[in-house]
Amino acid sequence: MGRLDDKTAVVTGAGRGIGREIAVLLASEGAQVVVNDLGGATDGTGGSNIAGDVVREIEAAGGKAVANTQSVATVEGGESLLASALDSFGGLDILVNNAGILRDRSIFNLEEADWDAVIDVHLRGHYCCSRPFARYVRETGRTGCRIINFSSVSGLFGNFGQSNYGAAKAGIAGFSRVLALELAKYGCTVNTISPGAMTRMTIPLREARGEKVTEQEMETGGPQHIAPVVAWLCAEEAAGISGEIVQCGRGLVGIMQQPAVIRSFEKRGSGLWTVDELDDYMPQLLEAKRANVETALKSGAPDVVG
What is the full DSSP assignment across 41-101? Predict the structure, then answer.
């Protein structure tokens, strides 16, 4: 018996890397899987039938899966994912929005096409795939459903040369918080993953710095470390968890702090602040933020287990 028996899942960008590991693990836990991937290069160009390869791998292990090669960056592509699940398996319970591309450039060299392509696949892609599934959940009353979205430290913390990617990933975090509120009454949870893994998208960044990625690093920091966290969030044990950001990778799993006011001052009668008054209070706010970050760094340091 698997934790996801009788469930149907869609995993986007599931031809390689993190998405493939998720699709294979969900299938091993009993889920029927729609494997979506265009099969393109990391910049989104080209295409191949790698989705079919993953389907055959799942079937060879005794699982059930079908391929979908539509683009998540279009409304039609997003709707096709739901259609694939309904046509092949009669329903849909889990949507994993993992598909993504990279076109890294500093703002000085970032062209409009590079901005649009990354925003389209990541942020627009999350919308295009989530809307038809959300409507399906509401209209059918299907319970116990899950949406797992993928953000990134590039959007949550920032990373040089990735303003397009960072903007999309920060937007996904905000999108997920709203979706969690809107789907709560229908029993559908929405959570966000902030992954860290060696994949075809991240390895070139290391190599560009002259750092060689070893087989041992792939074992300790590969995409296989993300999939179990996703599977757990899709299982019954996570039924009451929604609106969270979970960081994982390299044997680490952690919960991330959501935006919150650390300290504030309010003038009596909602009076208007003067610039001179802010000379006194802004430094106090910044000091409160510094202390908060220091506390978070200490509490967030991993406890070694197992």
Answer: -TTS-----HHHHHHHHHHHTT--EEEE---TTSHHHHHHHHHHHHHHHS---EEEE----
